[in-house]
Design a protein that fits this description.
Elements (H helix, E strand, L loop, with lengths): L1 E5 L6 H11 L4 E4 L18 H10 L3 E5 L6 H6 L4 E2 L1 E6 L2 E6 L6 H10 L4 E3 L7 E5 L2 E5 L14 E6 L4 E6 L5 E3 L1
Protein name: Phosphoesterase
GO molecular function: hydrolase activity; metal ion binding
Enzyme class: hydrolase
């Protein structure tokens, strides 16, 4: 089972197309929020076309689960036919996975959720900076942003979880090379 991890697409259809080159081999896609709107503090993404991105998500043949981000609004649910919820909790091949945008959670609150639900993976977004780290037995993953990277090198990224290998990593959206393993 291969899980694709996406966050902070911010309405950028062109970056979704780039990401989908890699995501199309996944069994499911988990999106950690900020789907359509770019937000008032972010620049307008180069490929900004939220209507086209909504259509791509709606027509995607791979199941997508979406956690609500701070830039997501009620109106987004009117054009996206996938539920957008504050938390996504799922069990895939016996692994407990939670997805939340992360903008309202402190590190301490994340650790409490990990312990309370005995999570194997916790997926967050918001910072636009990719992270893969262990917190106890849980792997915390931020796949970064597909369109508005806040890394120094401005690399846009997505992540993956390979359940059988108990492995999580993040790749450069331009060339597919791993940037965090």
């Amino acid at each position: 089972m291969k899980i694709g991890l996406v966050s902070d697409t911010h309405g950028d259809y062109k970056s979704w197309e780039k990401a989908f080159r890699f995501l199309k081999e996944c069994d499911i896609i988990l999106h950690a929020g900020d789907v359509l709107y770019h937000g008032p503090r972010n620049p307008l993404p180069e490929g900004y076309d939220p209507k086209k991105l909504a259509e791509a998500i709606n027509s995607c043949e791979i199941s997508i689960l979406i956690a609500e981000g701070n830039c997501d609004a009620y109106v987004d649910q009117m054009v996206i036919n996938v539920p957008i919820t504050p938390y996504v909790f799922t069990v895939i091949e016996g692994k407990k996975i939670m997805v939340n945008h992360g903008h309202l959670l402190t590190d301490e609150e994340i650790e409490k959720l990990i312990l309370r639900y005995s999570l194997d993976y916790f997926i967050v977004g918001h910072t636009h900076i990719p992270v893969v780290k262990k917190i106890g037995k849980c792997t915390l993953i931020n796949p970064g942003s597909t369109s508005l990277s806040k890394r120094e090198d401005k690399i846009n990224s997505i992540g993956f979880v390979e359940i059988e290998k108990d492995r999580a990593y993040v790749i450069n959206l331009e060339n597919g090379e791993k940037i965090i393993d």
